[in-house]
Amino acid sequence: MELRYDVIVVGGGHAGVEAAAASARAGVRTVLITPDLSRIGQMSCNPAIGGIAKGVVAREVDVLGGVMGRATDASRIQFRMLNRSKGPAVWGPRAQCDRSLYPVAVRRVLDELENLDLFQEMVGDLVLEGTRVTGVRTQGGITFYGTAVVITAGTFLRGRIHVGQEAGVGAGRAGEPPSIALAEGLESLGLEMARFKTGTPPRIDGRSVDFSRVERQDGDDQGIRFAAYTEEIIPAQRPCWITWASDGLKKVVSDNLEQSALHGGEISGRGPRYCPSIEDKVVRFPNAPRHQVFLEPEGLHTTELYVNGLSTSLPANVQRDFLQTVPGLESVVMTKAGYAIEYDYFPPHQLFHSLELKEISGLFFAGQINGTTGYEEAAGQGVVAGINAALKVKGEGPFILRRDQAYIGVLIDDLVTRGVDEPYRLFTSRAEFRLLLRQDNAVRRLGPLAREVGLLTKEQTQVLKDRLDQENKLVAWFHNTTLAPKDADPLLVEAGSEPLSGSVKAVELLRRPGVRARDLLGAASADSEIAEAKEGLRTGVLRAVEVELKYEGYVERERERAARLAEQSKVLLDYDLPYLEFETLSYESREKLARIKPETFAQAARVPGVSPADLQNLLLEVRRAHTREKQSG
Amino acid sequence: MDVDTIAAISTGPGAGAIAMVRISGPVSSEILLRLAPALEEMPAPRTASVVDLCEPGDGEVIDRAVATYYRSPESYTGEDVVEITCHGGVIGPRLVLSACLAAGARQAEAGEFTKRAYLRGKLDLIQAEAVSDLIDARSRAFHRAALRHMEHGLSTRITALRESLVRLEALLVHHIDFPEEDEPPVALDVITEEAKRVVQELDALLATAPEGELLREGALTVFAGRPNAGKSSVFNALLGEERAIVTEEPGTTRDALEETVQLGGFPFRLVDTAGLRESDGRVEQLGIEVALRYLKGADIVLFCIPAAAKTSAEDRKFLETTAAPVVLLETKADLAEGPERDSTDLKGLAGAVQVSALSGQGLDQIRQLLPELAYSGLVGGLSDQPVLTRQRHIRALKIARSEVELFRNSLEGGLPAEIASTHLRPAETALEEVLGVITVDDVLDVVFREFCVGK
Question: Of B226, B371, B214, B218, which is closest to residue B303 (Cα–Cα)?
């Protein structure tokens, strides 16, 4: 059988789902092929979306017309704003989700899309014409032809699961077969390949937990949503629980270290430093008195709990033993053992910023196959790969997010410029323009871009317009309105601020510490302008305006820095520059630049290990090359 | 590829026993072999060899010289370098250079050898600048400051400060990125204390700047006083030569005379000026105006009064024009015991010396007093502190200082950490620019323009 599409997406995880949705929304015929349609949008590790920086990515994916925001709102059973005690620029929305509701919501959103078909089969091979991909073949022998192919294989490429020291079992996730033929096919293209590992903790039966011995953690209010365009119905809420692992657990783990797949040498790949297994924590921080453990509900209709903080590859009996040293878990029943998984990934310097492979036209990679970890990181890449696959079909230039535009831009630039030597996770510290990349301004940053690329429906475009109009009106109100002492003083005193001697602009008052936008709006004498500004205020609008105005000076400074960087990005570097021949550069820099092939001078400056002197020389060499070209041409 | 080979006479012009022509670039060794046909192969690196140099064209012998080959990257520029030490004089070195150019080298631009050394990573920018300073140094103290920069004194300090800032940012960011980790956040006062320490270190460096800048130019030391007070005699005595014309006649000095002199190893620009008095003479008046201008810009004023005379209201009026410390020189001390003088109300009085140009009395006292006044922070020999002598460094360090201070103030003022930390990166950037982490060609050109050819 032969089938024809424009874009073929291989894989139905968080990257695959977003790639397929973006491609379909951009108006090209798309098919998503995955071995098990019932597991589309599966949360294979912790059933939670968001967190520091990651939560911003989830919002960015949503604003770009993605699935993740809506699926999260529709399945969240506990919501918290992390870093609420810190400044609003680093708030991180995080939702605990119902593991079974999330994929249902994903499927529902996908089914709304006109240009998208789904197909259940494992893909075995690529179809190529020279260095251009033209389709894929399934293991059952069906050929799908298309102009662009997006591979989002997650941990399935030669995936191997380890529990303890017994030889690992081939698997893409627990209970699912790995993808071996596709891995071999990709390797035979001459692509560089490496191995990573990651792990999960055990799950336990909530009925066996002594909740009197653990601390209850309730969620925040539901005022903040992930989805900007659609109001999903938020399910009932559940608490999480906190307990602490200390000496008893450390002893069990240390006594059995040699039985760990991670520490006994069974696994060769590198694991994430930022999401360490309990074996790693015990070995690397022997002096830490205790380690925090979160017990998180797996869903509304199950008693199962996810033991966040105790990811491990020790044998199942050791896992049970160490769990039972933790307060509250003394007689716990384990429902699923934790495990480590190792898998193939393709070092991402082989990609353009569009996530298309440099050496194979039309082939895109997104998600863990590029060496990242996390649902949000995968989804962010998925959106970008999906959009670019569609643009390729349309013969249009790539869609690239800059580092000062989105965390997704930071993520992808880091991947292709710096490469990875451990599974890559986003942090706010990876972004040099943290103040610009906030959860509250995702709509303003990316909404107009999404509209331009054609990712939004008519309804979504209207919502976007309304929201930006509201923001603009509010901003104008704060700039144009002056408050008299009698109106402002009560709230100023409340905020611990000096009372006024005369009338002052609302925006000036907003910049004072502790003064809230909402209170200022309330304090203003009723006039038609404010009534208009306040009318039908959408969720998050006031917050976005408040943060933008309160820290305007700082935000402006970051924008100026970003603009200076953008100047450097205007110096384009040819793809085929003969870096190895640039003898004025150190050998190390020549090799690195030849490997990364930066697209701009600014990107070259971010390649690790390239010294300032080498950058100077690079500029000189490029100028010489240009002069020569002019002379000879 | 495409890097050319440069050559220049690296020693100063004029008659000298020997001169040195330096060649740097990929074809340096070929050039030597063409100039010295008797050489069958390149001499071993870093070994002096006697060679007969001939014109590459007609083979006419130019000179017998010593050639030393430095193989890349173990050379000043990091490229292949040949240094030819030939006989000095006006003609010989030029013949050798022309032969090099005829054999394929290009005449080097000013500072080009050092620029190449920087671009090849052999020197950082501060060191490259120090090379130029070493050459220009006209005092032991400035030479010493430059040498310290060559030895990484300033680079090390600035690198360490930059790392402190990066660490500060890391401490803050850890708290932002890992709010639910096992360790509690770093206490805010740990961070503000560290910021304070960085500011203190920057202040300590910046405190050397005023004197550092003086080191470069020399402290402007102005002789002033009424006509015939003996200014020119003391001026000449300190220079050790009859630079200014000295007569009995008041008002002999009309224009200002400026000479650079080293006192106790520190540079001074001594200026002899016209005597200060109300005058109708056109020329003398102009001279007095010049003197007043110097007084305004002076770093030190040497106010001369004959030991036998009294200070007048007019003297005091002239001293109003300067903000510099004033040293009272009671001149012609050999002629008369001074009157009981009450000088305590002289503006800015920083010392008084009885001096006689004739007997030499008091001269040593002046030589000791002036460095103490102009360079109080540097006198007393070698402190560990690198001295800031360049505007470029001073400007950048001031920016860094003000940003770190803003950072600390905003944290203490209750602004969120991620807002306050926006001040850290500009501070880091400022420090990086001092070290040469820059990407704008113009800045480099400015730095290397100050060089002489051959370095």
Answer: B226
pLDDT on residue A280: 85
Q: Pick A557's closest partner by Cβ from B178, B413, B422.
A: B422
Quote the CA–CA distance of B417 and A108 in Å, as a whole number. 41
Interface of A with B in 231-290 (CB under 8 A): 285, 288, 290
Report how far apart the first and last C-alpha atoms of chain B are (Å, whole number). 23
Contact call for residues A32 and A119 (beta carbons, < 8 A): yes
Q: What angle do CA A98, A103, A108 make, to 5 degrees?
A: 120
On whether the B6-124 domain is CATH 3.30.1360.120, my answer is yes
pLDDT band for position A375 (50/70/90)?
very high
Select from A6, A14, A74, A120 the least CA-distant residue to A391. Answer: A6
> Which tokens in the block code for residue A443?
């709509």
Q: What is the pTM of this model?
A: 0.84
Q: What is the pLDDT of residues A540-550, one digit of tens each?
A: 888 899 999 99
CB contact (8 A) between residue B173 and residue A86: no
C-alpha distance from residue A259 to each of A248, A254, A338, B351, B386 (Å): 18, 10, 14, 83, 57
B118 touches chain A (CB under 8 A): yes
Instruction: Provide the token pair at B191.
Output: 């961070």
Angle value at C-alpha B239, between B294 and B375, nearest 5 degrees: 60
Measure Cα distances from A615 to A412, A537, A566, A611, A620 in Å: 22, 50, 17, 6, 9
Q: Which two tokens stand for residue A562?
A: 């970003």
Residue located via tokens 């630039």: A413
CB of A627 within 8 Å of a chain B CB? The answer is no
pLDDT given at position A527: 63
Q: Which residue from B minimizes the CA distance to A290?
A: B182
Q: Which three-class secondary structure state does DSSP give residue A17?
A: helix
Reference A279, options A304, A244, A252; nearest CA is A252
Which tens digit of pLDDT belongs to each residue from A233-246? 999 999 999 999 99
B119 and A616 within 8 Å at the Cβ level: the answer is yes
Query: What are the structural domain ranges in chain B?
Result: 6-124, 130-208+388-436, 214-374
Q: Hey, are the CB atoms on A86 and B437 less than 8 Å from each other?
A: no
Of A469-473, B330-334, B427-431, least confident by mean pLDDT is: B330-334
| ipTM exceeding cut-off 0.90 for this assembly | no
Question: Contacts of residue A615 in chain B, CB cutoff 8 Å?
Answer: 439
Q: What is the pLDDT of residue A376?
A: 98
Note whether B191 and B170 are within 8 A (CB): no
DSSP string across A232-290: PPP-----EEEEEE-HHHHHHHHHTGGG-TTTTT---SB--TTS--HHHHHHH-TT---
Do A548 and B419 form a contact (C-beta atoms < 8 A)?
A: no
Tell me the two tokens of residue A259. Answer: 């039985």
The superfamily CATH assigns to domain B130-208+388-436 is: tRNA modification GTPase MnmE domain 2 (1.20.120.430)
Q: Are B98 and B83 in contact (CB under 8 A)?
A: no
Following DSSP, what letter does each residue of A537-551 receive, concatenated? PPTTHHHHHHHHHHT
* Residue scoring higher pLDDT (B285 or A499): A499
Strands (E), B55-152: 61-70, 81-87, 106-107
Provide the strand spans (E) within A465-594: 482-483, 504-505
Which of these ranges, A45-54, A410-419, A558-567, B36-45, has the smallest mean pLDDT?
A: A558-567
CATH entry, B214-374, from 3.40.50.720, 3.20.20.30, 3.40.50.300, 3.30.750.80:
3.40.50.300
Which pLDDT tens digit goes with each residue over B367-399? 999 999 998 877 765 556 788 988 889 999 999
Nearest neighbour of B121 by CB, restricted to A88, A613, A620: A613
Provide φ and ψ at B296, rounded to 5°.
Answer: -60, -40
